[in-house]
Design a protein that fits this description.
Elements lengths: L1 E10 L2 E10 L2 E6 L10 E11 L1 E6 L1 H6 L12 H14 L5 E7 L12 H7 L4 E6 L5 E3 L1 H8 L7 E3 L5 E5 L1 H13 L3 H17 L2 E8 L6 H7 L7 E6 L4 H6 L4 E7 L29 H13 L3 E6 L2 H12 L10 E4 L5 H10 L2 E4 L2 H6 L5 H6 L9 H6 L4 E3 L10 H9 L10 H7 L2 H6 L17 E4 L11 E6 L2 E5 L1
Parallel strand pairs: 1-4, 5-11, 6-7, 11-12, 13-14, 14-15, 15-16, 16-17
Antiparallel strand pairs: 1-2, 2-3, 4-18, 7-8, 8-10, 9-10, 18-19, 19-20
Helix pairs in contact: 9-10, 10-11, 15-16
The protein binds zinc ion (ZN) (2 copies).
Length: 492
């Protein structure tokens, strides 16, 4: 199969009118003249932009897919809305072993509180109800769920009322336990369905390659995904989210970790900060690892030639990661990454640079949580000036790769690029080309794909996305088509 694609090509950081000759799965030639080579079928995209296919370096594939199966609470504004949705789900989702509700957003709920366990019991009392907060770091259970899952015992992170009875709200370790629980008990066919539903959403957003962060110590979904990779249209790079180095090696993976938690999240007050939370001065968050354990994990995984990714949001968590690497890491040939890095300071940035660690960022966090009156300011007060400091990181020539953390934010690189260019903190804005690189060139480097992907160059994979406009003033831009290795996999 040979054909031509014409349009405004993003070539060596410029927009140039031209034509690409695609042969099989590769970009065979690039013509930057007005003339169109003869003898090949032509797809003329006229004034539209031709970009390399986007790379999202951070997607929770199962959770994104589950959002397309179980109810999404992200748009509801009251507890009554929630109760209606639960009632509906009890009728429609009776085949599932539990009822799962994702993306509960306390900020949007007018009552500004979580539902009470007893309120949930009035609607469902013979089936487990699990409600997950948008950031994944708080869950709420009904009484039946508490009894079934925790067998009436106490678990660290369980919130209790004045009578020492659990309220149903779970944070920290108890929250983690629930997330592991429901993933473990999901039937295999539901998991496969979730993976495939998620991929449909991913492709529509112009993504041709992505990192899928999958599984945990009790859920081996990464094996299921690995065995079925041939069923997907995109290039999927799997991060098994476990600490079992031997198992990961035996299965043939080259990577380990993902959102392997060093700390929690800002919205749940569990991200580890060096000073107390502005709006909750009793706490500085949680570190899940001891220094000792983290050092051993990093060292052993490095000796096993695995690329490591871990989740560190607060400055204290990032500091712990750096401290562990500083003890032994001589170079970063394995391209170890830190996910999120939302709260930094200039000392941490210098140490990240010295270790040559990759920062895997999610610029859409600034779109949702940055700026006046939003989450970052509430939790951090004045330190808001140092959230997601992209300009400062790039000034130190640190490699920044971009992702969405979907389903926490939509898997939409255009939103990511727009958010980085329009960072609420003007000092930390980066320009369009730098922002595009997060989701193309640097994304490829972060995943050892820089020889085939992330650029429009002769001999590179014909992974392309056609855009009607540039995501500078708005991110809601029509995507005309998506090509993966020369095959059109999506068209508007
Ligand atoms: Zn994470
Ligand atoms: Zn994540």
């Amino acid at each position: 199969m040979e054909f031509l694609i014409k349009g405004k090509i993003y070539y060596r950081e410029e927009f140039l009118e031209g034509t690409l000759l695609i042969k099989k799965d590769k970009i065979w030639r690039i013509f930057l003249t007005k003339e169109i080579p003869r003898g090949y079928p032509l797809i003329d995209y006229q004034d539209n932009y031709i970009f390399p296919g986007f790379i999202d370096s951070h997607i929770h594939l199962l959770e994104l897919g589950l959002l397309n199966i179980f109810p999404d609470l992200s748009e509801i504004t009251s507890l009554n809305d929630l109760f209606d949705i639960i009632q509906e789900a009890e009728k429609n989702l009776s085949a599932f072993p539990f009822l799962l509700f994702l993306n509960f957003d306390l900020e949007k709920i007018k009552e500004k509180r979580f539902p009470k366990r007893k309120e949930l019991d009035k609607i469902v009392n013979k089936k487990i109800v699990i409600i997950s907060q948008k950031d994944g770091h708080t869950t709420i259970l009904n009484t039946y769920g508490l009894i079934k899952i925790f067998n009436q015992g106490f678990f660290p992170g369980m919130e209790v009322d004045n009578y020492h009875q659990p309220t149903g709200v779970l944070r920290g370790l108890a929250n983690e336990f629930i997330h592991k629980y429901y993933k473990k008990y999901l039937p295999v066919d539901v998991k496969m369905l979730a993976f495939q539903e998620a991929e449909k959403v991913i492709i529509k957003n112009g993504i041709t390659t992505f990192c899928a962060l999958v599984g945990n110590e009790e859920d081996n979904s990464y094996e299921l995904l690995l065995e079925n990779l041939h069923r997907f249209k995109t290039e999927i790079i799997i991060f098994p989210q476990v600490k079992d180095i031997k198992k990961v090696k035996n299965l043939g993976f080259k990577r380990i970790g993902g959102c392997l938690l060093i700390d929690g999240s800002l919205s749940s007050y569990t991200a580890a900060l060096s000073v107390p939370y502005e709006d909750n001065p009793q706490t500085k968050g949680i570190l899940y690892f001891s220094d000792e354990d983290l050092y051993h994990f990093f060292k052993k995984a490095t000796e096993a030639d695995l690329q490591i990714a871990v989740h560190a949001i607060g400055d204290e968590a990032v500091k712990q990661v750096i401290r562990a690497y500083e003890k032994f890491l001589k170079n970063n040939n394995l391209r170890h990454r830190i996910e999120h890095c939302e709260v930094l300071d200039s000392d941490l940035i210098k140490r990240i640079k010295k270790l040559n660690l990759i920062v895997s960022c999610q610029p859409a966090f600034e779109y949702f949580w940055g700026g006046k009156g939003k989450l970052y300011e509430k939790r951090l007060g004045k330190r808001i000036n140092f959230t997601n400091p992209y300009r400062s990181l790039l000034n130190e020539s640190i490699i920044l790769i971009g992702g969405s953390d979907a389903p926490i934010t939509p898997p939409n690189p255009l939103l990511g690029i727009y958010s980085a260019v329009n960072h609420p903190n003007e000092k930390e804005r980066i320009n369009l080309k730098e922002a595009i690189a997060l989701f193309t060139k640097h994304g490829a480097y972060g995943n050892f794909l820089e020889e085939n992907k992330g650029l429009i160059e002769k001999g590179y994979d014909a992974d392309l996305v056609i855009l009607e406009n540039l995501p500078i003033k708005d991110f809601k831009i029509k995507i005309k088509a998506v090509f993966k290795k020369g095959t059109k996999i999506w068209e508007s």
